[in-house]
Amino acid sequence: MSRLRQRYRAREVALAFACLAPSLIIFATFFYLPFFRMLDWGRYKSQRGGLSYRYVGLSQYRDILTGPDFRDGLTHSVQFVLYTVPAGLVLGVLLAVAAHRPLRGIKVFQAIFSSTLASSVAVSSVLFLFLFNPAVGFFQVAWKEDPDMALFAAALPSIWQNLGLAFVIVLAGLQAVPEEVMEAARLDGYGPWRRLTRITLPLISPVLLFLVVVLVIFGFQAFAQIQIITNGGPAGASETLVFKIFRETQNYGAGAVLSVGLFAVTLVVTFLQFVLLERRVHYGDE
Amino acid sequence: MATSDDSRRQSTNVGSRLGVVGQYAMLVVLAVVVLGPLLLTVIQAMSPPLLYVDAGKPFHPVHVDWKDRTWFTGGALSVVLRTLVLLVVFTWINRIMVGWEWAQPRLATTWQNLLATVGATLAAAVLLGPAFGSFHAADGKSQWWTLLAMAAVSATLVPALAATDRSALAITLESVAVGSLVTGATLVFVGGAVWTQAWSSASLGPAMVRSLLMTVLITVAQVITAILAAYAFAFLRFPFKRALFAMFMATLLLPLEVTLIGNVALIRQLEWINTLQALVLPFTASAFGTFLIRQGFRGIPPEINDATRLDGYGHLAFLTRFAVPLTRPVIASFTVIAALGAWNQYLWPASVVSNDRYNTLQFQLRTIVGNNVADANVSVAAAIVAAVPVLVLLIAFQRQIIRGLTAGAVK
Question: What is the percentage of chain A residues whose pLDDT exceeds 70?
Fold first, then answer.
């Protein structure tokens, strides 16, 4: 142990910690401290306004995490992910395959397809809010008031907003596929459809996995579109987990439990993605 | 066998030759679908919604509120600003069409390219003024002024295109398409009264300044702290390195959504609600940035490090003169991605700003989406105006943004 320690030079160690200090302080203050305090708060029942607390122990975790509030929030979050992720994946592949060809002026189309990167979630939500306004919009539908359609209405701007990102990521994957592979497939008599499904998609599967991970994270984090378009309504039909957490920022006890629930869900989803999808994707070196 | 092979090859050749038009058609259809929501909302923004509902046709703007002025009225600053923006747009388009690089500014000063940039700007400025006035007066001459402006601008683009090896058809099509599109867009975005209306009624200016300040502070801080931490992880030897690195990366599992309640409570305890430091401080360190830049630093050959040590360079000199310049592409990508993320923040401002006077731009958009459908077009216009800074960023740093976004996807 003492020999190990001698390998470090005091000045270098001091410099290293000086370099790490700014980040460490921020991470400790705004990431770890709030998180561990929330683990503690979950055992107290708080009145709205956070003024009085009553110790209830772990029973609050059990009650909330098995209760309807958490279950509904989780269902809506998963539903939101199911609306946005497959659509983003399919449309991203469609646009990228369409724009990955040696045509004159293809750069213009690539710029147009990636242009939705310029809008933010708030911007695209405002655009769609009025596009689908039942009184004055182009598509006059009352989805906001329909409990079955409200969440889909909130997902639409995300689907559009994600087009640019999905396109850019898939295109980068396509551009990394060696031209000789496609040429060989063409000489073997593979048609465009078989080239796409048998060769291109398997080859870019790591990129597609990355895209799925990013889109799922975005889906679980969705907030602005829901606040702007439905504000959780009608009657909580579009309240996702994050929206419910935001609503409880005055109610530390229950909010903390919901947050820990979200943390657990994120962990499970991240784990599942890598275990389930990692097996099916093709990495070039194997 | 040979004949069938030949005929198949021939048929695919014919197919791909015929397919060029088909491919362009498909791309145009997809482009319209992607831009569709934007185009429809621009139309929607142009006219008061209740009036077009009365007219029974939401697809046709009615009673568009046009500005009653020429290009050269409305204050010296705004005239100069409008002209400059147009000049930049034409320069950018000319660069793309003719293909000179920013690194070769001399190519921009050939008379053909000057005509395409300065000439087009002047032509648009001189001819669009009467067009605004004519639209406002609804005197029936507006379409002629518009066509004249489009033709004049298109004509200025011809010599620059002709100097390249394009066919006469391509020159005509490109100049007409680009000339009319840019003139039309300028007409809509400068002539429509709704944009300035949105700017003032939504007080977008102050919100934009606050957002800009927040974005710059967060970005600069993130880049500096990430470079420092990455330097320590890549080049220095110190105890608990693995554990500390794991602690950095574990913050990726604690996104703002998870720690929101605890962070809001902390900001309340510090009495930082409605302050700039509340918006900035929690985001001044980045695990993603540290990881990305550390990867970049690790790509520097160790010989360079050894050689600079022998030459007597200290850590600071090595960092600023070698490590950072050698990883500039990575750092640039991260900078742009960090700026984009900071600018687009919504949940955090929504949580720690309680007074509209301190809203950032993205959150400000929500406050103007009232229930007043008569003003729906103004909030749509405000949203489009709010996207302009990011659009500029996207155009200027396209390569860096794409590299940053795909950093995790393609090794």
Answer: 92
Phi, psi of B156 (to 5 degrees): -65, -20
Q: What ipTM is given for this predicted complex?
A: 0.89
* B3 lies in some domain: no
Classify residue B58: in a domain, yes or no: no
Give chain B's domain count: 2
Q: Are residues B95 and B161 in the same domain?
A: yes
What is the structure's pLDDT at B411? 46
Residue B82, in any domain of the structure: yes
* Domain match, B182 and B300 both: no
Cα–Cα distance, A140 to A134 (Å, whole number): 4
Residue B71 sits in the same domain as residue B157: yes
Both B288 and B388 in a single domain? yes
pLDDT per residue over B165-185, tens digit each? Answer: 888 888 898 899 999 999 988
- Last residue within a domain, chosen from B141, B171, B191: B191
The alpha carbon of residue B236 is apart from the nearest alpha carbon of chain A, in Å, by 6
For the cut 70, the answer to whether the pLDDT of residue B25 exceeds it is yes
**What digits encode the pLDDT tens for the residues B318-356?**
999 999 999 999 999 999 989 999 999 999 999 999 888
A251: left (phi over 0), alpha (psi -120 to 50) or beta: beta
Domain boundary among B157, B191, B225: B191
Phi (first) and psi of residue B192, to 5 degrees: -70, 130
Task: For residues A89 and B353, give the distance between their C-alpha atoms in angstroms, rounded to a whole number.
Answer: 35
CA distance linking residue A41 with residue B139, whole number of Å: 69
* Owning domain of residue B260: 201-405
Residue B208 shares a structural domain with residue B245: yes
Range A62-278 has CATH code 2.30.29.220: no
B348 contacts in chain A (CB < 8 Å): none
Cβ of B53 and A117 within 8 Å?
no
Residue B9: what pLDDT? 41
Position B328 scores a pLDDT of: 92
Chain A interface includes B305 (CB < 8 A)? no
- A179-236 pLDDT, tens digit per residue, is 888 888 888 888 888 888 888 898 888 889 889 988 998 999 999 999 999 988 788 8
Contact B254 A210 (CB under 8 A): no
B397 touches chain A (CB under 8 A): no
pLDDT classification of A155: cutoffs 50, 70, 90 = very high
Q: Closest residue of A to B36, CA-based?
A: A160
A55 SS3 class:
strand
Cross-chain residue pair A121–B44, CB shorter than 8 Å: no
- Assess if residue B8 is contained within a domain: no
* Cβ-nearest to B380 among A33, A109, A130: A130
- Residue B12 pLDDT class (50, 70, 90 cuts): very low
d(CA B104, CA A55): 71
Decide: B317 and A66 in contact? Cβ < 8 Å: no
Shared domain check, B395 and B281: yes
Domain boundaries of chain A, sorted by first residue: 1-30, 62-278
B125 and B146, same structural domain?
Answer: yes
Residue among B224, B244, B394 whose CB faces A118 most closely:
B394
Q: Report d(CA B287, CA B245) in Å as an integer.
A: 9
SS3 A45: strand
pLDDT digits (tens, 9 = 90+) for A62-91: 988 999 989 999 999 999 999 999 999 999
